[in-house]
Amino acid sequence: xxxxxxxxxxxxxxxxGLAGCMExxxxxxxxxxxxxxxxxxxxxxxxxxxxxxxxxxYSDSEYGYPYDNHLGTAKELEGKIAVVSIFVNDATTGWNxxxxxxxxxxALIYKDLEIATDYLENVSKSYxxxxxxxxxxxQYPELAMDLEIKELDxxxxxxxxxxxxxxxxxxxxxxxxxAKILSDVGAEQVIYMMYFNTPSTNTTTSLTSFCYEAEITxxxxxxxxxxxxxxxxxxxxxxxxxxxxxxxxxYTAADFGITQEYVDYAANSGLNDIxxxxxxxxxGEYLYDSIANEVTDITAYYAGLTDYSETVNEWxxxxxxx
Length: 322
Ligand SMILES: [Zn+2]
Fold this sequence. Notes:
With 322 residues, the protein is an alpha/beta fold. The protein folds into two domains: 2-53, no CATH class; 63-245, Collagenase (Catalytic Domain), CATH 3.40.390. 37% of the residues lie in helices and 12% in strands. The protein contains ten helices and eight strands. Strands 1, 2, 3, 4, 5 and 6 form a six-stranded mixed beta sheet that branches. The protein has a two-stranded antiparallel ribbon with strand order 7-8. Helix 1 (2-18) crosses helix 3 (42-53) and helix 4 (100-126) packs across helix 7. The longest helix is centred in the middle third of the chain and has 27 residues, at 100-126. 35% of the residues are buried. The structure holds zinc ion. The site of zinc ion has 3 residues, from helix 7.
């Protein structure tokens, strides 16, 4: 009982402090409205204060993707597309933005996103499609967040990809207010970028979970920010983002009936397609201030930028998802 009385007094004096000229009648009215039951302790009073300053509480359903996800959360290279940046602390890696190295990597990610989205917007424009990626977490702070996902271990993502993707998906479902973010930025499509602060000993390349044949909830680019000593470059970002629109790799025979024969042919002819190589074809080096790779007819077709590809027709590959 004593604690209740203390809490009540604290709440009352706070109101008086805020409204010094409040009339006696008003103060009594306040007392009547706020019963003892609502203020169990002074700690709870502080919690109430904190909550009243925070945003509306969202129900579980509002964490999910609020639109039809028939083609995933990134469907067409058209219109406004939100890019949600998630800095992941997984089982063995994490971010410490007090450290200069991580601050530099954070700045690199921002620049990678800027160059990759510019590139994709310009490519789309050349095919008559207006697209705007909204990735700028300086303008919209809700587009970037840290998440601790200890069920994830980047070292096993290749061997246990389904488990890895499921853990990532359920973490997004529980922690990312996708509906609110989309409404804030005025977009109806979204790509989730998960950044892992991998050591230079990492040999696993970034990969993307995208809606192609499997039923997936969210389209996520898993960016392993250091691979074999090289930080991820803008071309890698654009490559992974293109996957979310249903574009296959061209360096390996995996999706859409793309054959090893074609993969070998493309390699031998030096096809400079962003889904085949990410180095500058002239120097063999990664570029950090531009992208030297192209979107050739096959990639444009699978991205939904065209409805015909000579290559796909000639080789008899499967139709695009668009
Ligand atoms: Zn790929």
